[in-house]
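FW: tagging you since you asked about this chain on Friday. Here's the raw sequence from the shared folder, copied in full. Didn't touch anything.
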Amino acid sequence: MFQVPDVMDNSLLRFTAHCTLLCAMLSLMHISLLSIYFLSCRGRNAAIRCIQEMQSSKLYSFWNFWVLVALPTAWACYSILLFLAAIVLFVWPINDGYNASQNAPETSLTPRIILIMVVAVGGLHFVLAICKLRRIGRRSTVESEIEALV
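HL: got it, structure written out here
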């Protein structure tokens, strides 16, 4: 993305692209840290300590074991969202005073509208997938509670 000359001229797009790379790097850094830690834990004692830490952590704490484990996914999600924003900013540039003076030729709206429709359908699928997984999660806990009573 940085090799396209228009990206280097647009400061907001360049900032969004840099933030995308930073979030992706942080995600890789956290997953590497967790991978190295869990691969170095050979005995059962380390697994028992992790389970005890998970059970003893407070649910509404700012920093607990669950947050530590979720960090790679959270940073990857931030990176994906910022990358989508960078793509949209690239396709739909904001005309500030600097860009307006360049007399850029008018481009067709068709590719822009198609891109926005693809992003919207992808977002809708993502929301529907989350709703479906929540329903499946609720169903499995209800079934396990019924099985525990029987």
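FW: The mean pLDDT is 78.
HL: agreed, and Residues 109-149 form the longest helix (41 residues).
FW: great, closing this out.
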